[in-house]
Amino acid sequence: MSLKLLKIYFSEAQKPDVIDALLKAKVVSGFSVYAIDGFGRVHERYDISEQIRGARRMVIAEVVCEPDVIKAVEQAISTLHFKDPIRYMVHNVEDCGHWH
Questions:
Q1: What is the largest CA-CA distance in the chain?
Q2: CB 64 within 8 A of CB 5
Q3: Average pLDDT for 65-85
């Protein structure tokens, strides 16, 4: 089994479009989305409340998938043409399944 964990990082403003792209990608069987606080040195991207907090509100989508699905997700997201880039990470999944 060569499953991968694809983690996609994006802004709250990009969330609806990224979710729509993942839902429309027929090769994606499911995914999880959750909010995080992102810390970094590029503060000019932060809004006023984020500058005060010192962190940027971000969203992560996680997709457990076969390696070929990653390219399809990249193509789906690249059609959105966001000003800010979408960051991603790919991890190897050692094991995956369901307990009953």
A1: 48
A2: yes
A3: 91
Domain boundaries, the chain: 4-92
Phi first, then psi: give them for residue 20, nearest 5 degrees: -60, -45
Structure tokens at 72: 């399809």
Architecture of domain 4-92: 2-Layer Sandwich (3.30)
The alpha-helical segments, DSSP class H, found in the chain are 15-24, 48-53, 67-78
Q: Is the pLDDT of residue 52 over 80?
A: no
Average pLDDT, the chain: 87
Q: Is the pLDDT of residue 57 over 90?
A: no
- Which residues partner with 38 through β-bridges? 56
Q: What are phi and psi of 55, to 5 degrees?
A: -140, 155
